[in-house]
Amino acid sequence: MTKPAIKVEGLWKEYIVGHAQERHDTFYELLTSSLKAPLKRLRKLGGQADETERFWALKDVNFEIQPGEVVGVIGRNGAGKSTLLKILSRITAPTKGRIEVRGRLASLLEVGTGFHPELSGRENIFLNGAILGMTRKEVARKFDEIVAFAEIEKFIDTPVKRYSSGMYVRLAFGVAAHLDSDVLVVDEVLAVGDSVFQEKCMGKMGDLSAGGRTVLFVSHNLGAISRLCSRALVLNAGALSFDGATGDGLTHYSAITKGSGRGHTSACTGPLIEKAGVVSVSINDSEEIAGQVFKPEHMIVLAITGRLHEALREFRVTICVYKGDQLIIGMHDSESPTDMPAGLFESRFTIPAYFLSPGEYSVDINMYSDYVGQWLVAKSFALFSVSTEWYSLYEPNHGMGLINLRQAGTREGKI
Amino acid sequence: MSANQFQEQYFGHHHVTVIEPTKGWRMLDWRELWAYRELLWVLTTRDIKVRYKQTVLGAGWAILRPVITMVIFSVIFGQLARMPSDGHPYPVFVYAALLPWTFFAAAIGTSGGSLVGSSHLVSKVYFPRLIIPLSSVGAGLVDLLISTGILLLMMLYYGVGWSWNLLAAPLLLLAVIFTALGVGTLLSALTVAYRDFTHLTPFMVQIWMYITPVIFPLSLVPERWQWLMFLNPMTGLVEGFRSAFLDRPFDLTGLSISFVIAIVIFLTGVAYFEKVERRFADII
Predict the structure, then answer these.
(1) Quick check: pTM over 0.80?
(2) Which of these, A53, A74, A260, B27, could form a disulfide with A49 (CB 3.0-4.6 Å)?
(3) What CATH number does the domain located at A263-413 have?
(4) A114 vs B contacts (CB less than 8 Å)
(5) Is the minimum CB–CB distance between A98 and chain B shorter than 8 Å?
(6) Chain B residue with minimal CA distance to A11?
C-alpha cells in the first residue's frame, strides 16, 4: 500500500479572541481602565488569557489523503477550513496533534502573494516564484509557459501596478499553477477573475490532478467542488463531520446548512431580500437538493416554495442551471412577469435530463420584480448530476444550439 | 552535504514534513535557512530595486544622503560647536563613524518594522520568517558600499588614512552586520506582538547615537569610564572604523568587549525570534 500524501492525526487549533470594546461611563472609569489596560494587554499579548477568550477553531480533526487524490473541503464560514489550510501550509502551528506531509507542498491561499506593484511582470514572476518556494532555475524553465498562460506577453516588462486586475490575477495564478509540487493546497482563489479566467483555472486544476498531483481544494463554489473533486471533507464548527464521496458530502453539507439559520434566506443575496425569500426547495418531491443522480430518461422537477413579504408587481422567478461555471439553461416560471400578492407561492421547473450532457450541475435561483427593479439570487442552491449512462434519445454529437423551453415552468399562488 | 542535497531535503519529492505544536526555545534551523537562500536574495534585490523607483535622482540618493548628513554634522559640530576630532579633519573624522552608524541605524529601523510590513506574506505563505529582517538588513549593504566609496574619495582629498589598517574594515563591517541583525531581528519580533516598538524604535536609535562616539571622539570620555562605553558594541565598532580608515592604533580590549557583546546580541535576537516565530501569523 502506498503511504498517504497527507496524514492528519488529532489536530486541534486554539485561537485567542479579543474581547469587545469595554464601555466607560465615567471619566474616572476611563482613567483607571486606561491605566490598567496596558498591563491587561501585556498579559494577553504574552499568551495568557481567560478561558472565555479562547476559541477552538479545529477540534480533533483526523484524515488521510492518498497520493493523487483530489479532495474538496467544504464548510460554512468559520467552520475551520482556512485554519486547516494554514496549518497544512505551516503558516500557523497547531495547538495539538500531528501532520505528516509527504513530498513538496505548495499552498495557494491567495492569488499574487508578495507581488510588488512597482516591479515588472517579469520581476514579479521570479519574486512570486521564490516566495512560493521555486528555485530561480525552475522559474526560468517555466517562464514562457507562465507568460503564455497569463496572456501578458506584451506587458511583461510593465510594472504590475499598471496591469488590469484581470491581467494581474492571471499572472498570479499562472505562477502558482506552474509550481512543481506534489501536494497543492488551494483556497478559494477562483472566486476572483471573470468566468473565462475561472474556466481556465478550473481546466488547469483538472490537468494538475490528472497529472497525479494531490490537491486539497477549499471553495464555496459547490459546482467547482463537485466537478473537480472525487472526495469531500465537510467541516462543521471546527470538527470533521463528513469524509467520503463528493456527492454524499454535498448532501451532508446541505443538510447541515439547512439545519441552522432562518430558512434559506441566509443563502440569498440582493436588494429584493427585504421583500421576498426562498422557503424550501425540492427536487422530484425530495428534500435532498444536493447529490441526486439522474439518468437521461428522468425528468428533473425542481419545486421552489417562496414567500413574498409584501405584494409585488411584475414578479418572476428564474433558475439558472450551471455546469461548472458555465450557464447551460436559464428558465422562467412564467412567460412574462406577473403581479403577485403577499404570501407563499410555489414555482415548478421541469427539465428533461436528456437535455443535459452527463456531469454535475448546480442551480441558481433568481427572483426579480421588474416594477421595483430589484432582484435576489441564491447561488448554487441545488446540485444534482446526470449520469453518464447511454440512452437512445441522448446523442452526444447532435450539435449545440439554444434551447427554447417555452413555458417549461409554472407558478401558482398558495394560501 | 552539498547545496543540492539541502535543496532536496526541503523541497524534494520524498521529504516528509512533520507539523507539530512547538513550544519554548528551539534551535535555529540553519539548513532550512540555507535552502531558502534564493528567497533571501530575491527579497533583498526587491527592496533595493524598489527603493529608488519613481524618484528623479534614483540611486543618486544613496550618495547624497550620507554626504548631506556629513556636511550638516561638519558645519554644526565641527565648525560651530568646535567638537574635538583627535587632530583629524572633522569631515573625515565624522564620516568614518557615520559609515557604520548610518548602516546600523537604517538596518534596525527598517528591519524593526519589516515583519509587520510584510504581514501579507507572513499570513499567506510559509518560509523561514528570519528571511524578512535579514533581507531588510541586506538591502542596506548597497548604500553602505556606495558611502564607503565616498569615504575613500574623501581620504584621497584630505590625504589621510591610507594604511594597512584598512584591511581590518571588512572584519569590522561583519561585526556591524551581525549586531544590526541581532538588534533588527529582536525588534522585528517584538514589533509583531507589541506595536509600541514602532513608536519606540526611532527614539532608541536617536539615544543610541548619542551614547556612541559618532559626532565626538571617545577620548572626550574620561578614561576610567571608557570600558562602560564599550558595553555598547557600536562604540567599539565605530572607533574601530575610525582606526581602520584614519590610520590610528586599535583599542583591542575595547574592541574585544564590543565583539563579544555583538555576538551575544546576535544570538539573543535570533533565539528570541525563533521562539516566537510560529505565533506570528496568529497575532500579526
Answers:
(1) no
(2) A53
(3) 2.70.50.60
(4) 120-121, 125
(5) yes
(6) B20
